[in-house]
Amino acid sequence: MKTNGYKPTSPSACLPKCPTGVQGLDEITGGGLPRGRPTLVCGGAGCGKTLFAAEFLVRGAAQFGEPGVFMSFEETEAELKANVASLGFDLSGLVRHKKILLEHIHIERSEIHETGEYDLEGLFVRLNLAIDSIGAKRVVLDTLEALFAGLPNEAILRAELRRLFRWLKDKRVTAVITAERGREQLTRHGLEEYVSDCVILLDHRVHDQIATRHLRVVKYRGALHGTNEFPFLIGDEGISVLPITSLGLTHKVTSGRISTGIPRLDAMLGGRGFFRGSSILLTGTPGTGKTIISTCFARAAARRGERVLFFSFEESPDQIIRNTRSIGMHLEPLVRRGLLRFHAARPTLYGLEMHLATMFKEIAAFQPHVVIMDPITSLMVAGTDSETKGMVTRLIDYLKGGQITSLFTSLTHGGHALQQSEIAMSSLMDAWMLLQDFEGNGERNRVLYVIKARGMAHSNQIREFLISDRGIDLVDAYIGPSGVLTGAAQVAQTAREKAEVLASKQEAARRRRELKRKRAALEQQIVGLRSEHEANDMELRQIDEQVGTQTRLLTTGRTELGRLRQADVSLAAGARGNHQPKGGK
Amino acid sequence: MMKTKTVKRPASSSAPRSGKLWQLRLYVAGQTPKSLTAFVNLKKICENHLKGRYHIEVIDLVEQPQLSRGDQILAIPTLVRKLPVPVRKIIGDLSDTDRVLVGLDLRPAD
Q: Do A129 and B34 make contact, defined as CB atoms within 8 angstroms?
């Protein structure tokens, strides 16, 4: 699975391969069928054995310059030419130029009577002649089992077949031998016993009324190979096998961005939208607006002049155009200018592989920049989950290889397992947006959120998603203790909040006023106190002055008295002078 | 006798006029024991049952491989009854005489 069994080894160590030119098969087998050895291709009726063999031969002759011999035991030359021509191969031309030799061997049991010992030397002679006449490098025997019907003696036949395969190897031709699928074994007559180098099994299965062809390399001696069952198709260019992992993960990426067409959604995605060439998944329950978002995306791209291919599996193009007109988006001019192309098909119209092939063809023809698939889940009815996943993988690989941005919508069922069914697919996607309903308060509202967006910072918020006649807009959803509120509840909540804000503002103003008043009162008080304080100060100073004056008066009075009493002026003034006032008090 | 590409056994002059001419072709590939046995057996049967009115042509595909296409030869040896029509093919070394006679319509099947 992971490498398809292909490992490049040195040419000497590796079995030489013979490219088939069959799209995809050479990837699975790592280069083609074993060169110079017989390969058995078995399968039930109508699974494409003869076509496979014919394509191997025609491509060998036309593309690889290896002439081939087609030895048919069932169809005549004319039948073969007609059958192959319907698939675009010019067998007649190749036959004319001696690149291919058609040889019809007719066996009619009723004409044949067995009388004793014999061998199949006649077949060898014919084959030898055919190979030598055009220098064939490739041989097809279609189908050897006709011999079992024509020749009664199985013991001889088996011995001769063993010899034939040996002989083909000695002849160094790359041979494809077809055989009918048996009930218990790979082939009805056990041919796989003789062809031991490479066995390819073709299968045509019907699952839920839808038929898909599968190819499996059962055995490839001496080489690693993809052992899985690979779906294949018979288109008008022959067989194409579609190996799931053929492209690997080697596509180049760009860091260019592409707008979603919804400004606020772009804002959620780092402000610039998705990466160009990325794959985007948009899941949602019914009626959440998946198609509208995808048409919005398509319109935005087309208006930038990019080509958009819109695969619709549910609605007809006209219906989409009409419906989007109701939200103010006009798609007709874009369709007329060839920028937007719709491709509508019922999922059940044909099998998944055919859908895939049709998509590939459309994409190759239109060369779009953006591809939209609406919805991818519809295709699940055309195949099982794993098949769908495989198909989506191949589609994404293909689109990424061409740097085409792809948007897949996916319908999920209501209920709890909203993301469950998408897990398989989501891992393949670079970005995943989820659309969801919120029910409550008698209404249903849509929300959108980005679950993942590889390689970019993205918003983790849930946004309410509004569809109006002016288009799409996103608004912030209210997220609070009671959950996410949308719609009227959101509006009500917003109003309630506004009222609360107003109330608190008023409250604040009131308190501010009160505080101001208090402050003013305090200030007044402060002024009063200060004046009182000043008055006190004044009083204190007056008292001090009075005391000073009295003291001075007392002192001068005493000095005067002493002088009058003729005391020792100087001593009395120094020693007693200071004590005198206290004592005088 | 098998060295030539074709061994012609023209009807002898004593062949009855009324009898149809049997034109038989024996395809071989080289002088293998089976081929030689087949030729010996064929001659014996013809002499016994078609005396004088048979013509055997031996075609060696090793030498003339292109002749294998015309009669759709797969098995060797193959005896083809070209005439009388319808064409009959008998494969094997013709050792089972009864079956050869049935195959050649010389004796009705049991």
A: no
Third-level CATH fold of B22-103: Glutaredoxin (3.40.30)
Chain centroid, CA A373 distance in Å: 11
pLDDT in tens, B3-58: 444 444 444 444 444 467 888 888 888 888 888 888 888 888 888 888 888 888 88
The reply to whether A456 and A506 lie within a common domain is no
Residues A523, A405 within the same domain: no
Give the domain range for residue A382: 257-485
ipTM: 0.81
> Is the same domain home to A217 and A335?
no
Task: Tell me the chain B residues in contact with residue A125 when contact means C-beta distances shorter than 8 Å.
Answer: 29, 61-62, 65, 68, 73, 76
The candidate with the shortest Cα–Cα distance to A41, out of A204, A180, A220, is A180
Separation between Cα atoms, residue B54 and residue B81, nearest integer Å: 10
Looking at A366-491, which runs of residues are DSSP E strands?
A: 370-374, 405-411, 431-440, 443-453, 463-468, 471-476, 478-480, 483-485
Domain segments of chain B as ranges = 22-103
Size of interface A-B (CB pairs under 8 A): 102
Over residues B55-105, the pLDDT tens digits come to 888 888 888 888 877 788 888 888 888 888 788 888 888 888 888 888 887
Query: How far is the first Cα of chain A from the last one, in angstroms, to the nearest whole number?
Result: 122
pTM to 2 decimal places: 0.63
Q: What angle do CA A514, A519, A524 make, to 5 degrees?
A: 130
